[in-house]
Structures are given as structure tokens and as C-alpha cells.
Design goal:
about 950 residues, 22-stranded antiparallel barrel, about 5% helix
Amino acid sequence: MMFKHTTLASAIFLAISSQAVYAAEDAAADAATQQAAADDIEVIQVVGIRSSLNKSVNLKRQNVQVVDAIVAEDIGKFPDNNVVEALQRVTGVQVTDRASGEVNTVSIRGLTDVTTTVNGRKMFTAAGQQVAVADIPASLLESVEVFKTRSASQLASGLAGQIDIRTHRPFNFDGAKVVVNARGVYSDQADKTDPSLSALLSNRWDSSIGEVGALLNVSYTRSNYRDQNVTSGAVVPFYAGTAGEHGFGTQYERMFSGWPMGLDNGVPFQLGANGELPTFDLTDGDGNVYQQGVPYILSRDAVFQNDYTGKRDRPAVNLSLQWAPNDTSEYLFEAFYNGYRNESFNSMLFSYADWWGNLDYDAPMEFYDGTNVVKSRIVANPAAWSSGDYSKQSTDSYVFALGGKWDISSDLQLKSELVYQTSKFKTDFIAMRANAIGLPNVAVDFNDGSGIPSWAIVENDYATRVDLTQTQWNYGTLYDNGGEDQGDSIQFTLDGDYYLDYSIFTKAKFGIRYENRGATTKTRGVDNGNYIHHDGEQLSDELAYANPYFFDGEGDVPTSWIVPHGPSLFANRAYYREFFGLPADKLALRKVFDITEKTYEAYFQSDYETELLGKRVDGQIGVRYTRTENDLKFMRYESDLPNEANVLTATDTGSGSNDKFLPNFIARLWLTDDLVARFAYTQTLRQPEFNQLNPNVVYTKNLAGGTNQTETRGNAAGGNPDLQPVESKNYDLSLEYYFGNGSSVYGTWFSRDINGFTYDSLVLERDHIEPGETEAYDYIVRRPGNTSNGKLEGYELGAVYFPEGLPSWLDGIGTQLSATFLDSSQDIPQFNTETGELLGYNTRDMFGVSDKSYSAVLIYDKESFSARLSYVWRDAFLAGYDGTTFASPRGIYRRPEKSLDLSLSYNVTDDLVVTFDATNITNELFQSYYEYEDMYNYGTGLYSRTFAFGVRYSF
């Protein structure tokens, strides 16, 4: 391979001619000034994987902030099926939530609140505050930069950091450029091969009005997917004493919350020891003990599985026009469209495992050794049902930007943009349950090994399995709902750079930003979703559907069952709406909220440069002011009972505002030309989601009644228009060593002090009278509040290394390594659910934070051939809490997640490249559990491997 060695000046020219460093321009000091003392640095200009890593290392080195990046290996060639998957190899980035055939969620250093910009412009999807990153096709991108610190010139939002996605522009190329890219992607569980197509056409010309350029980049991808999951239900208590005692009529009767009176799953249920059954005391509503020593066992309430299939399409278009009438000005118009289409069918099979009627006491019940926790059991006459759920979703998002930049003088440059954005999301959902008739028994081992349950419907001999495709299935319940979210905004920015020579200050940067954002949400359907009119009638032959072989032999579970066929249900929904007697009024969309948000921002910062003990120190100091004002309208309608009219009864209005000054200070110490230390203090924030601001409160009486005041209180829930942003004070300290040709090693310590996490709070509202009511009533009202604080700190380690002086056949081998270690805590408020009294705080790990994560990439890049084998792994983490009224324990944890991926490319000619890519090669299972991993397994997911073959032609 021919390597071209360049000086720093040439390297900077190459970087600036690429959009990757143009992205850093807004946040970094002038590269030539910052690197003046490093003129002897060498950068390798190559192609393929090593070239992309070289550019990434250069971006990290030249930027004042702590930033990592991934750069496309070639035009139209990003290394993965989508941007989210590509980001998983960036140090400090973790990905999760595999569903619908792809990874969906990005976190930076454990936090998921990430601001995403495209070409520096804040993006959103419909009525949300964030953009669905996976909806942006990877084939349109030139680079993605992950900012872990923030300068005053950048958006303040995003506690975790900012991801800036850069697309191609015509002035990036010397002249005409055409690239066509086609891939076929095979998904093994779906057993489908899908197209992924993109094309780029670009050119630039000298004309009588100056230099002009035009670029059109189009992309289309289709993905068929199949996700399969088997789940053991929640852990709940069962009475284990003698029938008739303690208020229970039957041994092994399930203990429900509030029945008998005083049972609350706040009770710390204990695992047995030495085979002895634990006990607890029953109390009344006033806390008085009226039953002592009630024995219990712990078992699951259900077992269920989902066979989720679907098809997803993502079209996208990027148009970029540039005009430079002279050497001192440049104008830009860009239009960006990305679309999302998804159709999915979920075949669900569900069986309760908590029934105590007709219990056969001779049926085996197995416990985990030394505990009162049930491992396996047989339950007679189970209530079992299936569900055929069909969903159709679409998103259309458009961004139009018109901007310019001008050299006012040799010292002053200005640039400005006017941006209009609109995004609409639509969804339609229809589902039907089918009830299984006459099932004899369910035999279930909740953990048959490796966290996977085994279960079957069996005859009374407990051995013969019932064929669920031959069972009678009756019509059950119909659900029909939908929605439409829409958002738009207009943004104006003005930024300036002023080069100065005043004391240690070298460059001032200043600017303003204004955004007027609107969002609306419309829904239809009934809140409880129930239309029950046809119990007892068997499913018609046209609707009954048996899904094919399920779970690929990974567990001993039912492999086929009958469900209402979702696609047929959707295609004939008019018939089934009439069949079930759905009120036509409930099918019309109704607006439920309308929000206007205005944001005013201004910043000033300065680059500086000085010496400390003979070493060069440079960096940035600045402050950003941000003010947000919200005007809110939420609509209330008549009670959502199936036969009542959809009549608007009230419009609740509210308003709120907040403003913050956010300082930042960044220092970079050049210990040598190749050894750099950085320190950063920055502040970031997260604005509340729109639905959290809902001033409307929905009040629900306690229809069950009770014997004292606390047992007759109702429940209510609403938003909080007075919510304030979550704030984070951020500290970063890094040390980076750059050596050899494009090699580096680095480490970073960081800390985040987070104040005002949004978490539900309770309050007792006395003597509330609902409209149309005359009787006052007491309610426990649940609202979100800034009631929780957290702390996150950790370390990052990373390296990119291409050894030199190797034998010729090993020349081009290299590696990219990274590791992240996190320690998190969050104070969660604990409330008395009967009085709303704040009892104190419970400290636990933050949701979604893995203590450890690793990435290792082996690279071989020589002449016409490039190869990359990558492995990513993240430790177990707390994913969320299960229902407050039934589960104990509530915490749901994810087991360690990992993926082994492969990417190969071969240059047949200078213009023609063939590629092969594979993901999830080892066919991993993705699992979760309730706190105690060995006994309290929860879900197991089987997702697809993908194998892709592609060709890319450019000229």
C-alpha cells in the first residue's frame, strides 16, 4: 500500500475539506492556532477502515473538548446496518433495547438523555424532545461525533452529551462525484433478504456568479424482522398455612394487594432458609396488627410468550446546494427528509399460573433448595388466552435550512441559519384476544436452565401435551386505537467569530438562537380498550391463524398456537368494528394536548492560550444563557366508556418557564507535542417531556369501598406544568498520548452531579369535587416532580494501535480497544401510598447504567482488502421497575449483553468495491431477571443474525 505522509498543514487542509472537521468548527478553537507548536505531527492518508480511524483520532486530538467520532470508511459506507449499531464501538457509548430487528437506544456514559443534531441543527421526532436516531439511514452519513463535554456555543440540552451527525455537501468534493451502493441483508429468524440502496450525485462548477455546487443523496432500506420472547411472570405471594385460618379459605391461595385487608407488596417478602416458611403480619389501614405469623410461599403469576414479526421501510433524501459568490461569503440551502414505515404482527400466548381452585395437592410442586420459592408446579384449569396484535406506524420528518457565512474582515466572521422543521407520526393498532376453552392443566418450570422457562398445557396424566392448534379458541376482547403526533419548529441562529490578540485570549465566539416549537397529540379509542360482546363464539376459520415453529429449539415451550390473524383483522377492521359494536364516535381522532415552546439562547466564549511551567495551555471559557417558555393546553373528554359520546368537557391550560446560566471552562495542557491533558467543567440540562407538563388530573374513585377513611380514598394522576429542567454539573479529566502513525491511547475520569431528576410524587388532596359531582372526595394524587438527585462517575480507557515494522504479510493489522467503568446512585423518594406522606429516600443504581462495558476490534487493512472483527459487551444493569401493585421484587435487571460482528470489503477496481457484513454472529440470547438472577429469571429474547452482501460503485 502506498502511504502519503503529510505535515500538519496538509492534514488540516484534508480535514477541513471533509465535513467531519467542519462539524468540530463550531465547538473547537481554530485548529491552525491550536496546533502551531506541533508542525511535525504526521498523519497517514489511506483508505478503508484505517483511514476512517485516522480521521477519528485527528478529530479527538484537534478538538478542545472531550469528543470521539466515527467516520465513514468511504462514501456510502458506514460500518453497520444503522447509526445506533455503529456507535456501540465508541468509547463510553452503550446501546440496548434490541427490538424489531435492531438496537434502538443509545446511552453515553450510562445516561440516555442524548441531544442529537444533524449538521449542527437540533432534531426531533413528532411531539417528542428527541429524534429517533435509528430512523436516520447510515448510508447518508459522512461522520458522527459524540461530544461528552459541551462548549457554550453548543446546545445546552442533553445530560449525557450530544451526537452530531454530518451529511455530505458538494464543496466536500473536488468536482463531480457519483456513488451507487446496493446491499442485500439476510435476517435468519425472519428468513428474508431485504434491499438497502443508496445513491449520491454531486458536482461543483465555476460560473459567472461564482462557484456553485449541488448534491443529492437518496437512500432506501427495508428490514423484515422476527423477535421471539418467553417470559416468566411476576413473583407474588401465596398463602401457605392451613385452609380457613388467617382469613384464607384455601391453602396456596394467592395473596392479592389489599385482600385480605392490609396486605401490601411493600412488605419485604423473604426467601426461606433451611426449608422454613417465612411469615409476616397483617395490619389494618391504621397500622394495627390483626394477624400474626401468616406463612407464605413465592411463585409466579403467569407464563407467556410473544412471536413478533414485521416489516420496516426507511426512505431518506438529502439535498444540499452551496454557492460561493466570492472568497468572503458562502450560502447554503439544505433539505433533509427521513421517513419511517412499520407494519408488525404480534402473536402472543398467555397462561395464568396462580389459580388455586381445583388444586391437585398430589401434583408435584418443586422449590429451590432451602427456600420458599417455587421452581415448578402444575395448575389445574388455567385461564389461557392468545392475542393477535397488528400495528401500522409511519413517520415523515422534513428539515429545510437556509444559511450563509461571511468574512466581514480578516478578524470577524459571521454565519446565520433559518431552519424550518416539521415531523408527523401516525399509528393505528388493532388487536383481538382469543380465549382457550377447556384446558386441563398448565405444567411449568419457571427456570428450566439458563434462565429459560419450560412449560406446556398437559392432560390430567401430566405428561400428554395438548395441541394448542386443535384447541377451541373463542372470540375474546377487541382493542382498536390510534394516534397522531405532530410537531414543527422554526429556528434562527446567528454566530460570530472574532480573532483577537488581548492578553491570553485569541478568539471570541458569540451567538444567539431562537426557536418556536409547537406540538400536538391526537388519540382515539377507549382508555380501557375493552369491547366484549362475543365471548363464547369460536374464531372463524378465516381469522384463526397458527404461527410457525417458535423459538428455534432454544427452550421447551409451545411452538405453535392459534391467534386472531392480525393482518386480516386490520384489513377487515370495518367489519370487526361493526361485529363488536364499536361506537363510530370512538374511531375519530381527538386532540389531547397542544403545546407551544419558545426558547431564547445567547452565549459568549473565548479561546485562550498561555504557558504554565513552560508548557502550552489552551482552552475555552464561556457562558450560555437559555430561557424556555411553555404555553400548554390539555383537553378533557367525557368518561371513556364504550357507549358514551366523545364530547370535549374542558380545556386545562397552563404555562411555565425556566432560565439558566450555564458556564463552562475547558483547559488543555500540552505536556509534549504528543501527550495532552484536558480538564473540563461544564453544565447541561434536560427539559421535561411535553406529556409530563400536562396540567390535567384524572380522578378515579375507589369503587371497592372500605371500612375506614384511608380505604375509601380515590386515586388521581396528572402532569406538572411547574416541572423544572434536570441539571447536571459535569467534570472531566483526560490524558491522551498520540504516537506512531494514527495510533493513540487515552484515559478519562468523569463525574456528573445531577439535580432534579423527574420522579413521581404523591400528595393527599382532600375534599375534591369533580365536575358534575356534589360529594367531596379525598384522593391520592400522583404527579411527576423534580424529587430525585443522582451521582454518576467513572473512567474510560481506549486505544487505537497499528504496529509498525511488522513482516509484510502482517502490515496493516491493528486494533481498537475501549472500556468504560461506571458507578451510579440515585435517591428515590418513598411515599406512604395511603396518606401521600414522604417517608424518606431509597438509594439505588440509576436505571440503564452498566458498571462495565468493553469493546474490542481486530482490524486488517492492506492494499485492496479490509476486515474488521468487533466484539462489544456490557454488564448487567437495572432496566426498570415492574408494577407497584403486584410484583415483589419489582426491579427488572438485564443480563450482560454482547455482540460479535464482522465486516469485510475488497476493492475489485479503484471504482468497484464488494462488501460482506454480519451481525450477532454468535446468535446471542438477551435475558432479564428480577434481582435474584438464579431464581427470579424474567424474559428471554431471541433476535436475528444478519448477513449482508453489497457492491459499491463510484466514479
